[in-house]
Specification:
single chain; 403 residues; mainly alpha; 15 helices; 0% strand; globular
């Protein structure tokens, strides 16, 4: 049975808002200086939240099939659906950036082609204005491609058992540590481009995969975790812990706010802190209280979840155009002057894109006239195949730092 985790709609909208806010903060200089610099600089943690949601929703169908003894999700439809979800808006954004934003002579059509194929993080070249946040989508696609193999390794061939579930949950601690170690290593050896690749963020996806295994095992009576259940009943406590961890990340422990390279230790701690923040943000949304479900998974959350991918894809283009229209000079403050119009216009553009282009394409490609990324239904955690920025029957951005 497909299930819907409606509270994740609102959570991914929060992630998109966080990414937009940190980029406006950088452009205005508010994330570099001022009383809220640390908080604005660290809102790129929205990327970690997105990755954790994707890990959960991508992996869960495989785990559920393992427990139910049913066939695994097929790879070809899964890849088709991912392409239907991400490519239309991506290609529109690349075209808009090329046509509407100024660029230097060395930003040629080849650079835009790399962004359209999400290969830009593996090749040297200048950044394209309005598209720098797409590094995270490139990383996500790498995870998409590896997911069928990772899910098979996680679920194995034998039948589920309490000991097997516990061993697998323990094994997922390895990728959680791989990310911080990778980021520390590439920082120490001076290979910043490698800091955009999947190994640096695999722990964020692993958090979601671990929650998928925990949730399904708990549902089938294989796990009794009274402590976690108690925490699920007091989501405010867990989300407060996420805020506390975010405040810790605003200290020098997690490195500088600007684009200056952190030390190896700072890179390690920042990635680890973001992993913990993503876990604390995601967990209460998996078994939400009625109030949390209404707030995050109600009508407003549903719509915000639908357009969150578009907000992510288009917001830097909108920000660039707002700066041109207003004659804004980079790093000259006045955060709200850029934030409010960028947020409103990005949401409107994303809504037009989703309801006018993206959803019709997905419905046509899936041959499902009723398909929606976030189906409107009861706002309960349980019974949809939604995902973070894609969908899951299967199935959703600057490195820790600015995009």
């Amino acid at each position: 049975m497909k299930v819907r985790f409606a509270a994740l709609d609102g959570l991914r909208a929060i992630g998109a808002l966080a990414v937009l806010t940190t980029h406006v903060g950088f452009h205005t200089g508010a994330s570099l200086n001022g009383p809220f610099a640390g908080l604005l600089a660290r809102l790129d943690v929205g990327v970690a939240i997105f990755f954790a949601i994707s890990g959960f929703l991508l992996c869960r169908p495989h785990v559920a099939a393992w427990f139910d003894g049913t066939p695994r999700p097929r790879t070809t439809p899964y890849l088709r659906n991912r392409a239907l979800r991400i490519l239309p808006a991506l290609w529109i954004a690349v075209l808009l950036a090329a046509l509407l934003l100024p660029h230097s002579a060395d930003v040629t059509w080849v650079i835009y082609l790399r962004h359209a194929t999400l290969t830009q993080i593996y090749l040297d070249g200048p950044p394209a204005d309005g598209l720098t946040q797409l590094w995270s989508l490139s990383t996500e696609v790498a995870f998409y491609l590896l997911l069928p193999l990772l899910a098979r390794l996680l679920t194995g061939r034998g039948r589920p058992s309490r000991r097997g579930v516990a061993a697998r949950l323990f094994a997922l601690a390895v990728p959680v540590l791989v990310g911080p170690v990778w980021m520390a290593s590439i920082t120490a050896t001076g290979h910043p481009r490698a800091g955009l690749w999947l190994p640096g963020y695999v722990g964020w996806f692993a958090i979601g995969m671990g929650f998928a295994l925990w949730q399904v095992a708990r549902q089938h009576g294989f796990l009794t975790t009274p402590t976690l259940q108690t925490l699920a009943n007091v989501p405010g406590t867990v989300w407060t812990a996420a805020v506390a961890l975010l405040l810790i990340a605003t200290t020098p422990l997690a490195g500088p706010y600007n684009l200056t390279a952190p030390s190896a230790g700072q890179a390690f701690m920042k990635t680890l802190l973001y992993t913990a923040i993503a876990a604390c943000a995601l967990f209460p949304a998996l078994t939400p209280t009625p109030r949390s479900a209404r707030v995050l998974g109600g009508r407003a959350g549903h719509v915000a979840g639908d357009i969150s991918y578009g907000v992510f894809v288009y917001h830097l283009i909108v920000l660039g155009l707002v700066e041109r229209v207003t004659g804004y000079t980079l790093f000259s403050g006045r955060f709200l002057l850029l934030f409010l119009p960028t947020l409103v216009i990005s949401a409107l553009v994303a809504a037009a894109s989703y309801y006018g282009i993206e959803r019709p394409i997905m419905r046509l490609g899936r041959r499902d006239r009723s398909y929606d990324v976030s189906p409107a239904s009861s706002a309960n955690a349980e019974p949809n195949s939604t995902d973070a920025w894609t969908a899951t029957e299967v199935t959703p951005a600057s490195p820790p730092g600015q995009g």
